[in-house]
Specification:
With about 280 residues, the chain is mainly alpha-helical. The model is unreliable at about 1-10 and about 195-205 (pLDDT under 50). The longest helix has about 40 residues, at about 190-225. It has one domain. It starts with a helix and ends in an 11-residue tail after the last helix. It has helices spanning about 5-10, 10-15, 20-35, 55-70, 80-95, 130-135, 140-155, 160-180, 190-225, 230-245, 250-255, 260-275; strands spanning about 40, 50, 105-110, 120, 125-130. It binds zinc ion. The site of zinc ion (ZN) has 5 residues, from α7 and α9. The site of zinc ion has 5 residues, from α7 and α9.
Length: about 280
C-alpha cells in the first residue's frame, strides 16, 4: 500500500495539513498545563509561584554548580579572617530568621576576585560575594544587607521560577515555529521563531526586576529579624551606584537588573517593618 508520505514526501504530509495544527495545539496545551501544574505556595513569601524543580533538586543543582561558579571568580578567598566574617554574618542571619528553618543548605563564600563587584546565589543555598564588593562595604550591617538579599533569591526560589518560565517559553516557541512553518517557503519560520524568542526575553527581564524587589524586601525583613539596621540595605545601593561611575562598574547590576525605584521600595519595606520608625541600637 502506498501511504501519503510516499506520495507527497514526509515533510509535507506531516506539516502540511491538519496534523501541523494538532501538533501546535498539543505543544501549546502541553506547555501551559506543565507550567500551571507546577504551582505552589512559597512558605516564606506566602505567594503562589510556578517552579519546575523540587527543593531537593534545587539543592542538588546548586551544590553541583557551586565549584564552577566559584572558579569563575578566582575560587574562595584564602584570607581565613575575611572568609569567617562572611560566614558568621550569614549564619547570624539564618539563626534568627525563617530562612534558617528552610531545608536549604546555605553556604557563604568569599571569592578571591578583586575586580568584579558582585554577589550571587545559586538555587538551594550556595551564596557568594566577591572580594571587590566585600572591600567596598564599611559595616557589618551592609554585609548583612548583601547576604540577606541573596538569601532572598534562594528562599524566593527565583532560579526555579526562571527555569519553569523558560520551559514554558521554549514550548510556546516550538509551537510558534511549527505554526509558522510553510512547506512552500521553509525559511519564513525563522523570523517568527526569533520574534517569539525575543518576547520570551522581555518576559524574563521584567521578571528579574520583580525578583530584585522581592529579594530586597526579604533582605529588609531578615535584617530586621536578626537585629541589623535595615537602612544598611540603602547604604549598599548607594555604594553600588557610586561604583558605577568608576572604571569597573559593578557586574552586580548586569546579573541583578536594577529597578529605578529600588531605594524607594526598600524605604517602603523598612516603614512596613517598623511603622513607628527604626529603633535605636540596631547593628549598623
Ligand atoms: Zn538580586
Amino acid at each position: 500500500m502506498v501511504g501519503r508520505s510516499a506520495r507527497y514526501g514526509r515533510g509535507r504530509s506531516l506539516m502540511g495539513g491538519k496534523a501541523k495544527w494538532l501538533i501546535v495545539l498539543f505543544l501549546v496545551i502541553g506547555s501551559i498545563v506543565t507550567y500551571c501544574s507546577s504551582s505552589s505556595i512559597n512558605p516564606i513569601t506566602g505567594e503562589k509561584q510556578y517552579v519546575s524543580l523540587t527543593v531537593d533538586q534545587e539543592i542538588a543543582l546548586g551544590l553541583q554548580s557551586a565549584p564552577e561558579m566559584a572558579a569563575q571568580f578566582g575560587g574562595p578567598d584564602p584570607d581565613p579572617q575575611d572568609q569567617s566574617a562572611v560566614d558568621q554574618v550569614g549564619q547570624k542571619l539564618l539563626a534568627s530568621t525563617e530562612a534558617g528553618d528552610t531545608p536549604y543548605e546555605f553556604q557563604f563564600t568569599l571569592l578571591k576576585d578583586e575586580e568584579t563587584i558582585n554577589a550571587f546565589a545559586l538555587p538551594g543555598g550556595p551564596i557568594f560575594i566577591t572580594s571587590a564588593l566585600f572591600d567596598k562595604l564599611q559595616t557589618e550591617g551592609q554585609l548583612a544587607g548583601v547576604l540577606g538579599h541573596e538569601i532572598g533569591h534562594v528562599v524566593g526560589r527565583h532560579s526555579s521560577e526562571h527555569i519553569a518560565k523558560q520551559k514554558l517559553t521554549q514550548g510556546l516557541t516550538g509551537a510558534a515555529v511549527i505554526a509558522a512553518y510553510d512547506p512552500e517557503h521553509p525559511s519564513s519560520s525563522q523570523q517568527s521563531a526569533a520574534v517569539a524568542a525575543m518576547i520570551g526575553q522581555v518576559v524574563n527581564m521584567k521578571y528579574g526586576r520583580d525578583d530584585e524587589l522581592e529579594s530586597d524586601r526579604l533582605g529588609v525583613r531578615f535584617l530586621a529579624e536578626a537585629g541589623y539596621d535595615p537602612r544598611a540595605m540603602i547604604d549598599v545601593m548607594h555604594i553600588l551606584a557610586d561604583s558605577s561611575q568608576g572604571p569597573r562598574p559593578p557586574e552586580f547590576f548586569s546579573t541583578h537588573p536594577n529597578p529605578d525605584n529600588r531605594i524607594a521600595e526598600i524605604e517602603a519595606a523598612i516603614e512596613a517593618e517598623f511603622p513607628n520608625g527604626v529603633p535605636e541600637g540596631l547593628i549598623k
